[in-house]
Amino acid sequence: MRKISYSEAIAEAQLQEMQRDEKVILMGLVQKDPYGSAFGQTKGISSVIGEDRIFDMPISEQGYVGAALGAAITGMRPVVELQFQDFITIAMDQIVQQAANMRYMFGGQIKIPLVLRAPTGAYLAAAAQHSHMLESWFAHIPGLKVVLPSDAADAKGLLASAIREDNFVLYFEHKKLYDKKMDVPKEPYTIPIGKAAIKRVGKDITIVAWSFMVSKAIEASQILEKQGISCEVIDLRTVSPLDEEAILKSVAKTNRLLVVQEGYWNSSVATSVSALVAEKGFDYLDAPITLITAKEVPIPFAPVLENYVLPQTNNIVETAQKILNKI
Amino acid sequence: MRKISYSEAIAEAQLQEMQRDEKVILMGLVQKDPYGSAFGQTKGISSVIGEDRIFDMPISEQGYVGAALGAAITGMRPVVELQFQDFITIAMDQIVQQAANMRYMFGGQIKIPLVLRAPTGAYLAAAAQHSHMLESWFAHIPGLKVVLPSDAADAKGLLASAIREDNFVLYFEHKKLYDKKMDVPKEPYTIPIGKAAIKRVGKDITIVAWSFMVSKAIEASQILEKQGISCEVIDLRTVSPLDEEAILKSVAKTNRLLVVQEGYWNSSVATSVSALVAEKGFDYLDAPITLITAKEVPIPFAPVLENYVLPQTNNIVETAQKILNKI
Amino acid sequence: MEKSIAQQIYKKMYAIRVFEEKVEVLFAKGELPGFVHLYIGQEACAVGVCANLSPEDYITSTHRGHGHCIAKGGRLDRMMAELFAKKTGYNHGKGGSMHLAASEIGILGANGVTAGGVPVAVGAALSSKIQNQGRVAVAFMGDGSTNQGTFHESVNLAAAFKLPVVFAVENNQFGVGTRFCTISNEPDIAKRAAGYNIPGVIVDGMDVVAVYQEAKKAIEYAKAGNGPTILEMKTWRYRMHFQGEPATYRNDIEETEWIKKDPLEIAKTKLKSMGLLDNAMIVDIEESVQKKLDEAVEFARNSPDPMPEDALTDLFA
Amino acid sequence: MEKSIAQQIYKKMYAIRVFEEKVEVLFAKGELPGFVHLYIGQEACAVGVCANLSPEDYITSTHRGHGHCIAKGGRLDRMMAELFAKKTGYNHGKGGSMHLAASEIGILGANGVTAGGVPVAVGAALSSKIQNQGRVAVAFMGDGSTNQGTFHESVNLAAAFKLPVVFAVENNQFGVGTRFCTISNEPDIAKRAAGYNIPGVIVDGMDVVAVYQEAKKAIEYAKAGNGPTILEMKTWRYRMHFQGEPATYRNDIEETEWIKKDPLEIAKTKLKSMGLLDNAMIVDIEESVQKKLDEAVEFARNSPDPMPEDALTDLFA
Ligand SMILES: Cc1ncc(C[n+]2csc(CCOP(=O)(O)OP(=O)(O)O)c2C)c(N)n1
Ligand SMILES: Cc1ncc(C[n+]2csc(CCOP(=O)(O)OP(=O)(O)O)c2C)c(N)n1
Ligand SMILES: [Mg+2]
Ligand SMILES: [Mg+2]
Fold first, then answer.
1. In terms of domains, do A173 and A207 share one?
2. If we measure between CA atoms, which residue out of C1, C126, C114 comes closest to residue C58?
């Protein structure tokens, strides 16, 4: 199999879906070639498909996300992109008050085959306004599905599913993953939305993670394995709806839960995973549920500060050791 | 003591703070008399203070919240109002990317003595776009303090604190409480931000609630008391920062925790309270932590549907009975 | 104008008026839950514009949306049932007054967010253009709503891509209790068109014939691929901002002047003088509308409430 | 123009140019973390406007903000230290290039959000007006940023309340790789002023004397209580959108034409012909700036990193 990067996988999924269904259109900043999006996520598409279904937008996030919604409910299947997830703050009315409510509020009259893509995350010295992980906000809102692929193969299959889905899907790509290459099948394929994946089988402790944190959890597991601690790493893939079954099943086996989240603690997906297990898997637990998250400050610019604020592999290793009383 | 309503208490706090400090200004839709805000929360103020420090804004939530921020960092102490909390979706960039980050990102150069007030909540057949409880979004973001008073006396004291605070405070008023009257001291006073209040002392189970849910929790406690179940009701008052100590102390005593939240489950303050206790108070627990929240759909218009979706007193009663195995 | 159009125009204007008067009474009696914003006084705007539209064309509407819904062909019975929060309503009781939608006739929803529907209309127009469908999208909005950023973003986008949109601004000069000229420095909203190099037109929003004619031009211009127009209709709402509004803030003298320009009276006078309507037709129209309205109320009252568990349906397709 | 102002103008323009050229080299060598957007080519805009401001006046800036910071009086050493992510930087290493702020000289921050600072400037102007301080606020922004809703909301608000603001638009004709005229139907942004009944002025943004004069009028107009102006400066950025940008999309011929209009050359020629500058002064100025710049780099390199735990300070007052 050929190796391609996460951003290439994203571009490939979009190209293939556009070839498969002429209703698929792309909207966002600098989508067309030669640019092909800020991180190359649409690179090559306009050169193959032509320019009729790819729209370079003005910097009007609320307006063009709303326009994508309008197109979605009148026959198109738009994939709309924000240049950074942070700018979703500008489009919140169209996403939350309009799109998330619309089908329900209209009594099911319409479908919303809409995907919103955005680069998310930190670790790049991009400072407070370009480093957010805001998936928890959208997980909080009914009517939205929220997907965060952790590698190139997942990125391709999950995006194909999102584009074929008749509902609004938010698809958040981690900036630190764009360059990461791996084997990715060339032909189109889908990965189901709403299902977690066991990325590493283990028996002593369950580590739940998603997006960039999956690779940190796996790194930590490799270190811990050498110390005789066997970790099961669950990649949520979708943070709303949560795959409750996969989480509970793993904790039923390991009896210990560690959640690793790049974003902030309060009112987050991590606290939801904890609350789920504290309510429905309480009897499985042999130890307190522990959460590793960003520290409660905006993401600072200086790398020395940023690294201190964000979860690191060694935090995971040490915390797992502590949970298992090996420290 | 004289009885005044929650909205009168809010107006009184603002009037008194404006009299105390001429830097305090009000900005929002229809703030001046005769309107005095949509629910009367600024009623009577312009008639006493004059019109120089009260600004009726255009319907430009992002713009005028940003203007309030600009005024706050250049010497004023604005209280800026949104007509409904739902419209905060329009102002998210100025609140989250600008205001919440600004002091930190600038290395502490400025202060942000800013209060944003907004009516929140459902139970009014106002449908999906006028019924949100979005406090969890803001609790998720460092740099914001988030206050939700549950009665008129708290409303007055917490608002005075918020206005005197040199940091950005979000202050969310519940629409179902505006008309509720109670004894409220006439002279100015403050209630500390960041501290929970025990609204009812009990020993069998801790019920954590805030905003309108506090009255439902108290109602349920009264019913449960007759059945021999003694509930401790904690009113968080502030959902960020959380008063961890108050929560843990109560659960250490009762060994059981029920959280009642009007908003949605995923990535919410309720899940944070659970996660806090599952991590730091795990050994206190004699039963799973249970959460009562809105069902995962937008708030529907028809009262029969809305009531089904939202937490009701009888849900609290039944859940508490279940937790205590009395059912 | 054809005779049949003239009759449709009067019929819809009358239907809006009596529908709203009925809603006013029902709401006061407590039969309708939630909030209600009446359209009385602005009938010429919705009807004058929508008389140029076919069912395939799109509209987006506002919190004050009953008039647009009727003008675009909405059924009184399903509308009324929705206001009654019944299962037979357009939105099965999930939306209510502020969210009335009827996608099969191009009504992409009333909206509880000022200017919230405007970008949605732009997207519908984009969709029409990509698919070469020749449909136009009309975004209705009030004067107050044009101060939202989305208004600017939507107009700019539609202008740049020459999308078939009409920005139909009903300038009733107040947003809640705030007079437009106190929160905007230029009282004519149509003047904003210059910034986007598109047509901006001002028309007497109490005169349905004038609205019809200007809307016709804007819609034809859009359908011909020339892009959007800002169509500003100067008008007046005859009732409070929402039913039950506590404050009064408008000037009696001004109010009286506007009430004299009643759009229904102007419509009758003009259409009669144009030979398109006569008294007998008017009687016929009014009787038939009244009958439909009575039936609508009956239908709504007799319709079942949704079941509580229905709350969990309709979220995802 | 006074001689001292002319010299300040050339000094600041030259400082911006060499500061940015130095940053270009340092960034390429990997000495500066994060993202960097260079201001080269637009020096006349920031300097022409800010030469009319006192330290008490306010500015808000953009992602391309080094030039504004220098023009408004920012120190090269503290700026450079911030780009180096050092504790001695203006923001103690917490902000970096896109968030440079110096509140003691009225710099209310560069901004990573296009048009994000514009409403903030409006608020600073409101504050000045309430307190009768006579301060003006200048909101700098790019052409692309004017398509944000906040631009519209801010201009409308400032116009309605006659706030002392200048909307200083640097129209370099591209937002990232998108040419302005492909996403807006009217190439002259100043034309939008008509919609708000305020002055809209277009000026050659490569000519610092022209910018200075038009900005002077707008600032005096604002300080006199007349409200805002949209001041559009036509200009060109000489470098890529951000350092390391992969795509190229601008037209070579156009590029060459613009490079001929180098703002530093124009400034020298014009100021000399006006008798405000001579070759000796130029040499002096350039030498003194170069020295300061070398010291700034030295200072930044030798400054300490923040301590990890410093990350937890500065959140709340
Ligand atoms: C974003 C937003 N802000 C505030 C409101 C509250 N609100 C409802 S209607 C209205 C006034 C709208 O004025 P206008 O657009 O002129 O319409 P009119 O009521 O005059 O028909 C306001 C402020 C809202 N619905 N949405
Ligand atoms: C809200 C928002 N959307 C997108 C971006 C990404 N972005 C950074 S700079 C830029 C272009 C801005 O263009 P313009 O305002 O013309 O400024 P210039 O770069 O030409 O100086 C964009 C799209 C952003 N920073 N903020
Ligand atoms: Mg109005
Ligand atoms: Mg530009």
1. no
2. C126
Which position among B8, B17, B81, B130 bears the catalytic label? B130
- Checking if the pLDDT of B327 tops 80, the result is no
Q: What percent of chain A has pLDDT over 70?
A: 100
ipTM of the complex: 0.98
d(CA B54, CA B45): 9
Q: Which residues contact A58 (CB under 8 A, 6 or more apart)?
A: A64, C153, C156, C157, C160, D144, D147, D175, D178, D183, D184
Kindly report the pTM of this predicted structure: 0.98
Are A154 and A67 in a shared domain?
A: yes
* Per-residue pLDDT reduced to its tens digit, B291-314: 999 999 999 999 999 999 999 999
Going by C-beta distance under 8 Å and a sequence separation of 6 or more, which residues neighbour residue B171?
B115, B116, B117, B118, B147, B148, B149, B158, B159, B162
**Number of domains within chain B:** 2
Whole-number Å distance between alpha carbons of C289 and C188: 36
Residue B170 shares a structural domain with residue B260: no
Asked whether residue B170 falls in the same domain as residue B237, the answer is no
The residue segments making up the domain with residue B304 are: 197-323
Q: What is the spatial distance between Cα B106 and Cα B121, in angstroms, rounded to a whole number?
A: 34
- Element spanning D233, H or E: strand D229-234
Q: Count Cβ atoms below 10 Å from residue C309 Cβ, excluding itself.
A: 9
Name the amino acid, one letter, at C263: P
A56: nearest CB among D96, D98, D183:
D183
Long-range CB contacts (within 8 A, 24+) of B284-288:
B284/B248, B284/B251, B284/B252, B284/B255, B285/A282, B285/B251, B285/B255, B285/B256, B285/B257, B286/B255, B286/B256, B287/A282, B287/B255, B287/B256, B287/B323, B287/B324, B288/A278, B288/A279, B288/A280, B288/A282, B288/A283, B288/B323
Phi, psi of D97 (to 5 degrees): -50, -45
Same domain, yes or no, for B239 and B177? no
Higher pLDDT, C250 or D18: D18
Chains in contact with A, counting 3 or more C-beta pairs less than 8 Å apart as contact? B, C, D
Q: Does residue C246 sit in helix, strand or coil?
A: coil
Q: Do C195 and D194 touch (CB under 8 A)?
A: yes
CB-CB contact of B70 with D282 (8 Å): no
Task: From the candidates A12, A61, A135, A232, give the one annotated as an active-site residue.
Answer: A61
C207: pLDDT strictly greater than 90: yes
Q: What is the mean pLDDT of the segment spanning A122-144? A: 98
- CB of A87 within 6 A of ligand 2: the answer is yes
* Min Cα–Cα distance to chain A from D50, Å: 26
Assign D15 to helix, strand or coil. helix
The tens digit of pLDDT for each residue in A51-73 reads 999 999 999 999 999 999 999 99
Residues 273-292 of B with CB under 8 A from A: 274-275, 277-280, 282-283, 285, 287-291
Which two structure tokens, joined as six digits, stand for A63?
A: 């307006």
In this structure, the answer to whether residues B101 and B172 fall within a common structural domain is yes
- Nearest alpha carbon to residue A169 among A133, A189, A144: A144
DSSP letters spanning B15-77: HHHHHH-TTEEEEETT-STTT-STTSTTTTHHHHH-STTEEEPPS-HHHHHHHHHHHHTTT-E
A83: domain CATH number? 3.40.50.970
- The verdict on a CB contact (< 8 Å) between A143 and C315 is yes
Closest partner residue to B25 (CB to CB) among D116, D130, D137 is: D130
Q: Which domains does chain D have, with CATH numbers?
A: 3-304 (3.40.50.970)
Looking at beta carbons, which residues of chain A come within 8 Å of C118? 66
Q: Give the CATH number, domain containing residue B302.
A: 3.40.50.920
pLDDT of residue C304: 98
**Is residue A327 scored above 70 in pLDDT?**
no
The whole-angstrom separation of Cα C115 and Cα C126 is: 18
CA C70 / ligand 3 centre spacing (Å): 20
